[in-house]
Amino acid sequence: MLRLEGKIVVFGRSDKFLKIIQSIHSEDVAVIPWRDCTQPTIGIASLVYVVGYNYNTFNIPYADYIAANVIQPIDLLKKITDSRTKVVYINTQQTLSRTTFSRYVYAKHKLSQALRNLEIGHLDIIELPVIIKGKTPQIHGGVLQIGVFRALVALRLIETIDFQMLRNKIVQPPVNSFGTSELIGRFLRIPRTQLIDRFLRVICG
After folding, report:
1. CATH for 2-204?
2. CA atoms within 13 A on the CB side of 152
């Protein structure tokens, strides 16, 4: 049983975000990986950061993918938050397109919508472009994916943010402008690899 009463919680085991969050807060931070979101917990957290994504869900059935990335995380947050809790969701920067072929983009958007319906004290949603360290994109993926994104960064075809700017946004989140537009998913029931999903995201939205 994980005891969370009054604690700061990071939901998602992302080293780049965890290091920044730990540098901001002097108290201990409890970490719940995505794969452990169904574990038993007790107590209400004071602050919850929601980061990352379940990267094991690109090639599984659609219903399981939605459950792992939206339904189960929301069920966990309902158990560990109340009207006193602040939630900070670090999301991927949304495009202007209202359709997507990417499971990653669609799930992140659906989770963002579901978070807005939670009965919590305060919600901040921080949308981020690609994070870079030096000239290297800090993305989850293999050598090919990192190489492609490095080229996109060098050609200035995608927006980026460095770690200092990222820390500043987490410390002082921008004013939320919650949109209500629905994002339409295309061909999301077709399992795919992470590489294919990422290329669909870059090329098609």
Report:
1. 3.40.50
2. 19
Q: Express each pLDDT in 49-80 by its tens digit.
A: 999 999 999 999 999 999 999 999 999 999 99
Q: Alpha-carbon distance 202 to 137, whole Å?
A: 14
For CA atoms 181, 192, 53, 128, give the dihedral sign: negative
* pLDDT higher than 70, residue 98: yes
Extents of the domains making up the chain: 2-204
User: Please, which residues have CB within 8 angstroms of residue 13's CB and are 6 or more apart in sequence?
Assistant: 31, 33, 34, 52
If DSSP codes are grouped into helix, strand and coil, which group holds residue 186? coil
**What is the percent of the chain where pLDDT is above 90?**
59
Number of CB atoms found within 10 A of residue 53's CB? 20
Instruction: Rounding to the nearest 10 degrees, give the CA dihedral for residues 139, 144, 149, 153.
Output: 120
Q: Is 187 left (phi over 0), alpha (psi -120 to 50) or beta?
A: left
